[in-house]
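User: If only I could read backbone structure tokens as easily as an amino acid sequence. Underneath my words sits a plain record pairing an amino acid chain with its backbone structure tokens. This is the protein in question:
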Amino acid sequence: MKKANATLATCFGFFLLCALSMGNRMYLLISAIIALAWVFSLASVRMAEKSVKVENALSGAKVNRGEVVSMEISVSHRSLLPIAPVALHMRATSNTPAGTIYLTQLGRRRQRVVHKFAADHVGAMFPGVESYEVSDVFGFFKREHKPDMTGQELLVLPVPF
């Protein structure tokens, strides 16, 4: 159990115990608010993870060595409840290490990001999204998924003399 969930469960239990032992409605209200926040956090993550779509498109399937390749990544979801920014864990390419991109403008339920990198080494590589992480606004729940990215191979050809 995560530390945030353990803290939340402890606070919920404490306020519920105080409400039932003292008969004070304010403690019952606080425990109900904590329970609702926990339930809505779980519901927002479950609804968003079922509807998240991650798509990417390369500027070209074959490029010459040294050219800059741009990859457009599109993420959308149809959840009614708000979620935290989706984290895209990117694969390493020939000159850029693996990293994470946080999509902060997903309030409109759709966001596009252009990721540029140079094709420095000859050969085949598979750039793109390794996995994505959906979490709730409070940080109680996180789910990591791997998108279906079949056929996203980039072939880097040697430069002719």
Notes: Helices lie at 3-22, 25-51.
